[in-house]
Amino acid sequence: METMLLEYALPCVCAFWACVGFTLMFNIHGYGKLIAGVGGALGWLVYLLAGQTIFAAFLAAAAIGVFAEVMSRVRRCPVTGYVLVALLPLVPGGGIYYAMRHGVAGETDQFLSTLLHTFGMAAALAVGAMLASSAFRALVPRFRPPKK
């Protein structure tokens, strides 16, 4: 029980509060702060459960994209703020730092390995969010009841 708390719940709570903090920069108000925080926690939970790989980042970004689309329609707000804020905990900033560190130290093999993994993570985040958002926008209008 304690292991699950430390491995899953605590990182998700930290991602939630980090996203709530970033809502100040993106000028998101009211319940939007909590929604963006829940989106970040959801993305981080999916990433942890899927195995912390590049494919896990893709799945987390897709989950964030769908969640943000639904919440933006519920609140009638732009989806961009929710997606950007919720993706921030998954951005591979550490990978960029370590790649540059290996590059400066002359460790070419480690540099290339870390850099390619970082680019893979960034691409997976972008493609996952974009694909989920596009699929959601294409499919949802078809399921609306016809107007009378």
Explain the overall architecture.
There is one protein chain. The chain has 148 residues and is mainly alpha-helical. The protein is built from six helices and no strands. The protein has helices spanning 2-22, 31-49, 54-75, 79-87, 93-105, 108-139. The radius of gyration is 17 Å and the shape is globular. 33% of the residues are buried.
Short key terms for the protein model shown above:
single chain, 148 residues, mainly alpha
Distance between the termini: 53 Å
Number of strands: 0
Number of helices: 6
Q: Please tell me how large the radius of gyration is.
A: 17 Å
**Bulk shape:** globular
Q: List SSEs in N-to-C order.
A: HHHHHH
Short summary of the structure?
The chain is mostly helical and 148 residues long. The chain is built from six helices and no strands. Helix 1 packs across helix 2, helix 3 (54-75) runs antiparallel to helix 4 and helix 5 packs antiparallel against helix 6.
Describe the secondary structure blueprint for this structure.
Elements: H1 2-22, H2 31-49, H3 54-75, H4 79-87, H5 93-105, H6 108-139
